[in-house]
TrEMBL record, chain B:
GO biological process: alkanesulfonate transmembrane transport
GO CC, any one term: periplasmic space
Lineage, highest ranks first: Bacteria, Pseudomonadati, Pseudomonadota, Betaproteobacteria, Burkholderiales
Keyword Signal: yes
Chief localization: periplasm
One Pfam family, short name: NMT1
Gene3D superfamilies: Periplasmic binding protein-like II
Name assigned to this protein: Twin-arginine translocation signal domain-containing protein
Signal peptide region: 1-27
Keywords: Signal
Localization in the cell: Periplasm
Amino acid sequence: MVLNKQQGRHPGFLVISCISVLVFLLIWEAACRFELVDQIFLPSPSAVLERCASMFREGTLMGHVLASTRRVMIGFLVATLLAIPLGIVLGTSRVARAVFDPILSFLRPLPSMSWIPLSLLWFGISETQKYSIVFMGTFAPALLYVIDATRNIDPLLIRAARNLGANRWQVMREVILPGSLPQIISGFKVILGLSWTCVISAELVAAKEGLGFLIMNGKEFFQTDAVVLGMVMISVTVLITDIVLRKIENKVLAWQR
Amino acid sequence: MFNTRRTFLKGAVSLAGAAALPGIVKAADAQVINYGGSAWLGHYPAYIGIKSGLFAAKGLDVKWQSFGTSSARMSAMLSGGIDVACTGIVSALALMARGSKHFSIVGVPEDFGRVEGLFVRSGITSIQGLKGKKIGVTFASSSHMLVLDLLASAGLSPDRDVSLLNVPAPELPAAFQSNQIDAAAAWTPQFNRIRSMPDIKLLADDTGFSLYKQYGVTPGPDVLVMRRDFAGKNADAARKFLQAYFEACTMLRDKPDQAAKYLTELTNLTLQDQIATIKDATWYDAAQQKALLTTPGKYVDGLQKLAEMLVTHKQIDKAPAVRDWTNVNYL
């Protein structure tokens, strides 16, 4: 049998995976239908599907997905765009590292939820507040990924470039950035997942749309089917964005393959 | 001397044992009841019952568990973690709409309708004047229902004509002060804080709610709920709990100064503010409960209409038959 070259997986495994998911859903549905599980505690897949269909018809589901995606993308992009240059500087300069390391060490362990009270004071109940929560939750980890990727560049390559007459800027642009990019991108894929956890925190407060809001509002009204739907939509959206990122990675880092 | 010391120790142990015995027997005999509470005024009777010894006098050991929201409290009741709780009716109705038979409504502690309302900047003189304005309100709360009802009665759409912003109750005064919103719906204690701000006026309180005049039902009255499984197995304890609970309600109504002394530890309010907060609500005693919860009856009919209104405003999917959840057998 032929192997799927891109995924490196045997097509037979895909069939096994599909059957596994189907069996899982059937057992879940049966447990709910035969009242082995109270639907208030765990709604059946068909109830979740029904909720999905009705929200899709009303046009509210896509509104929630798009609102969260927008918040994730803006917060994530601002964080990464700032993290790349700053990370390279910190990764190549000992002095800069000495200056910023203590601050980074302080920021890194802070969970996104801890920023909610301050962000409300700084930005009020606006969209900027939501973006800021995503930004604060992702910036420090993104920066650390870039620093780490930069420091992993073979010093011989940098020395060789300098010996060949490259100035500091050229070394950064021609050697450090392309050399660290694969590690930065794979790190950013992890950070993107993290930014989804941040957006859920951001939408706990003063939001009227978004998947976090859908989950929290569902919780308030014991609509557990809406809660599970929100969770499923987060997973689906993250999977889709991961596929898109992989495509971008293949294009940008075509030379690496 | 050795003998004397041994005799002394024996005697001391015996005396201590004899002194502690009634307490141990009493604690062992006392029926444990887990109560879900918070610093909200709806929980005052239960807290007073614990602190003043009203429950202990009935042979009950009521244990206090704190929860941030009604939904969290009701979730704990579903899982059997608490036996009795006060909750906003919206949360109870949402659970009833999902078909939960885990609990019954066994009492109504108070009516806080005059300390919940919609505040506006002084330039706004009517509900119609809210068109195009930003209104801060905590979603899924009684204030939310009040706003939706007031807007509907003025022919305004909450989606098109105004901008409703979901603001947590503690953040409402700051949001108002920093001009992020033009109006805010809040309940006590945020209600009192906003009321004291300059250039802010109260446009409507819960007495402006459409169901209030006809049924005496505010947008989200507090109700006392009890786990059915617990009450079924401990009917005597359930009755004793309600007797002590409504004695505390009577104290709140008739002796607010005395009641306030038990509460300042819970609420961190000054004694003066605590007395004022108690007086802001109307406390119902045991004698009034049957009139409130018997079906058919005006109050239960009002709760039924409220459930239907929640469906109209797309807060819940279907209206439960409220009478199936009321229970006056333990009063």
